[in-house]
Design brief:
The chain has about 375 residues and is mostly helical. Helix content is about 45%, strand content about 5%. Strand 1, helix 5 and strand 2 form a beta-alpha-beta unit.
Length: about 375
């Protein structure tokens, strides 16, 4: 009887139901072939998706909703954790994971399934085309390093305007910021590229080595490109950055929130298993451009790490000063902000990340907007 009750609940969820497992008492037989039961993570995620989409009209959405339900129920629980968990109240063997009440599962467990669903959506969407135009022969030659979020946005904008990086004897333009911001944005950008460790673990890793990650270390970034002193600019004032790359203004830079970065980190891990390694950066770049805004602040460095960050910023500033590079701004701007001015969060809240993931599963607008691959990729700037 308990098996019939479970299959009846699965049918209820496939039809858009929202009743929790322990409140479900109907044991009507499921007209579909019973088969194995999905895990508690998949079932609870589907129930919450139904709750989030209950305000949407049914009608023509019935077939689409059923397809989505089947995808969620068939999705694996990605990442570290236990396999599909059995439902409490059902006969269970004396080995394996303990049965659980789905409504008490943590957001982390549900995110393991949601990230797999979103990775499939992203793979089906495909990468957005890169906007390019003919390179201007009289453009200023430069090479951008430093703040990964600012550099990534600026690089794409300049490429679309016919001002790609490189060329003979380019200036190395190192874009700086307070070091706590540089660290947070370096981790954030890694989440939208290949994925990485969770934020606290990543920060502990670099602190334990007493080193800065390559893209946050401006001195190491300049040396990596063999920048000669007359051809290096350390820019700490973004208002003065356009002149260093030969344009009048910068594009708007959107720093992803903590929930967006953490969700991207989880999705990147699954995408890496679904597509060849060479295709993952383009897909993740598409996600970064399309992920919906949530209003959550960007990730921030916890106060317990600020002494190390301050010492690292001072060491980097001394190295840049001794190297004699031209500074556009003030090296003092590399010092971390005070805790009261920093804002942001010390880490991503799994509940906020789950809310964003469910929103993206339910509302497919992020997949419908933007340019598609069949559109013309090469544009001539007006």
């Amino acid at each position: 009887m308990t098996g019939s009750r479970a299959h009846s609940w699965v049918a209820h969820l496939r039809a858009g139901g929202t009743t929790p497992w322990l409140a479900w008492s109907d044991a009507s037989p499921d007209p579909r072939a019973p088969g194995p039961l999905p895990g508690a993570q998949q079932l609870e995620l589907l129930r919450r998706i139904n709750l989030a989409s209950s305000a949407r009209p049914r009608g023509d959405h019935d077939r689409e909703r059923t397809r989505l339900a089947d995808r969620v129920l068939a999705a694996p629980a990605a990442g570290r954790g236990k396999a599909d968990l059995p439902l409490v109240g059902l006969d269970a063997p004396g080995f394996g994971p303990r049965p659980v009440d789905p409504s008490e599962l943590s957001a982390h467990e549900l995110l393991r399934v949601a990230s797999a669903v979103l990775a499939d959506d992203l793979g089906a969407l495909g990468p957005d085309p890169v906007r390019t135009t003919w390179a201007r022969p009289w453009r200023l030659r430069f090479r951008l390093v430093g703040d990964p979020v600012v550099v990534g946005t600026l690089r794409a904008d300049l490429l679309a305007r016919g001002r790609p990086e490189g060329g003979p004897r380019p200036f190395v333009v190192a874009v700086g910021a307070p070091l706590d911001d540089l660290l947070a944005r370096t981790w954030t950008q890694r989440c939208f590229e290949t994925g990485t460790m969770p934020w606290p673990e990543w920060l502990r890793f670099w602190r334990g080595r007493d080193q800065l990650p390559p893209r946050a270390d401006l001195l190491a970034s300049v040396r990596r490109w063999n920048g000669r002193r007359p051809f290096v600019r350390i820019v700490t004032d973004l208002d003065l950055l356009p002149r260093q790359v030969g344009v009048r203004r910068l594009p708007e830079v959107r720093v992803p929130g903590a929930d967006q970065a953490e969700l991207a980190r989880r999705v990147a891990a699954v995408v890496g298993l679904r597509v060849p390694a060479a295709e993952r950066p383009a897909l993740m770049r598409t996600l970064q451009q399309r992920i919906p805004a949530s209003g959550v602040a960007p990730i921030g460095v916890p106060s317990r790490e600020r002494d190390w960050v301050a010492a690292s910023a001072e060491r980097m500033s001394r190295g840049l000063s001794r190297a004699g590079y031209s500074v556009v701004g003030d090296l003092a701007d590399l010092a971390p902000r005070t805790a009261s001015a920093a804002g942001g969060s010390g880490g991503a809240d799994d509940r906020q990340v789950l809310d964003l993931a469910i929103r993206m599963v339910v509302d497919t607008g992020w997949r419908a907007g933007g340019r598609r691959p069949h559109e013309v990729e090469r544009q001539v700037e007006q």
